[in-house]
Amino acid sequence: MTTYTLFLVLIMIVAFLLILIIMVQNPKGGGLSSSFGGGGTQSLGGVQNTTSFLDKSTWTLSIVLLALILLSNFAAPKINAVDTSSEIENTIENREVQDTPVQPAATTTTQDSVQ
Q1: Is the pLDDT of residue 25 over 80?
Q2: How many Cβ atoms are within 10 Å of 8's Cβ, its own excluded?
Q3: Phi and psi dihedrals of 87, rounded to 5?
Q4: Does residue 75 contact residue 7 with C-beta atoms inside 8 Å?
Q5: Chain segment 53-88, per-residue pLDDT in tens
Q6: How far apart are CA 32 and CA 39, in angstroms?
Q7: Is the pTM of this model over 0.70?
Q8: What pLDDT was estimated at residue 34?
């Protein structure tokens, strides 16, 4: 398994965990749910330790995800663009120009142009 593949697998795992952590959290501002009458059913307070853990884990997972994405850039397989462009340049430079005779365009006359 290459390093790049390992980074991709880790990125997928961290992204999945981040989605799960975010889905577990309760909305704090009410937002859209309060406009539909759901704001009154939210309990004030709650377990502070759980909220703190979810907040810290969200920030930690998001920082880890960002770091993995940046590190995967260095592990990505490089494509040598110089070889590709040199092949194209060689093809353009080595092409043969063929002389083709130019035929005169046929003129068409219509009834309106004659009158």
Answers
A1: yes
A2: 15
A3: -65, -40
A4: yes
A5: 888 999 999 999 999 999 999 888 887 655 556 777
A6: 9
A7: no
A8: 47
What's the CA gap between 71 and 6, in Å, rounded? Answer: 11
**Rounded to an integer, what distance in angstroms lies between the CA atom of residue 36 and that of residue 80?**
56
Write the DSSP symbol of residue 12: H
Among 79, 71, 60, smallest CA distance to 17 is for: 60
Average pLDDT over residues 42-46: 53
Provide DSSP, 22-70.
HHHSPPSS-HHHHHTT-GGGSPSS--HHHHHHHHHHHHHHHHHHHHHHH
Rounded to a whole number of angstroms, the CA Rg of the chain reads: 33
**What is the structure's pLDDT at 32?**
45
**Distance (Å, whole) CA 18 – CA 57:** 8
The three-class DSSP label of residue 101 is coil
The whole-angstrom distance between residue 115's C-alpha and the CA centroid of its chain comes to 65
pLDDT 10s digits, 4-22 = 899 999 999 999 999 999 9
